[in-house]
Design goal:
- By secondary structure, this protein is α/β, with parallel strands linked by helices.
- The protein has one domain (about 1-145): D-tyrosyl-trna(Tyr) Deacylase, Chain: A, CATH 3.50.80.
- The chain is built from two helices and eight strands, in the order E-E-E-H-E-E-E-H-E-E.
- Strands 1, 2, 3, 6, 7 and 8 form a six-stranded mixed sheet that branches. Strands 4-5 form a two-stranded antiparallel ribbon.
- The protein is globular, with a radius of gyration of 15 Å.
- It starts with a strand and ends in a 5-residue tail after the last strand.
Length: about 150
Amino acid sequence: MRVVLQRVSKASVQINHEINAVMQKGLLILLGIEAEDTQEDIDWLCNKIVKMRIFNDENEAMNLSLLDVDGDAIVVSQFTLHASTKKGNRPSFIKAAKPDIAVPLYEKFIKKLEESLGKPVGSGEFGADMKVELINDGPVTIIVDSKNKS
């Protein structure tokens, strides 16, 4: 399971010209799921995300977590995070989980993140054509992969 965390001052997800999720300060989380991902990956990543100290304190140092700043989150599924670009010029998405595996894991990830934050989390819609807008704060963009825990 792989995420791209983008610290934002504002973000939204639009599907079919309708706003599906909107937030202010927090994290826009792009989530890529592989077939071998499990609840263990979800638990580890959600714990890492809510405790990662990437928000500025009063001294403008990144010392505060999403929990510390009572930030919001939006989760957007993005199978392209598992693109293989080793051969040729057309990415292969063979490692990305198929919908029958990915959708339940996506939903479990959102539920676990809500439990960890103690509040609702916005989301996109799995498999939908989405328009994502954001104001990247910093900019701060961090990639975390549950397969690289050490």
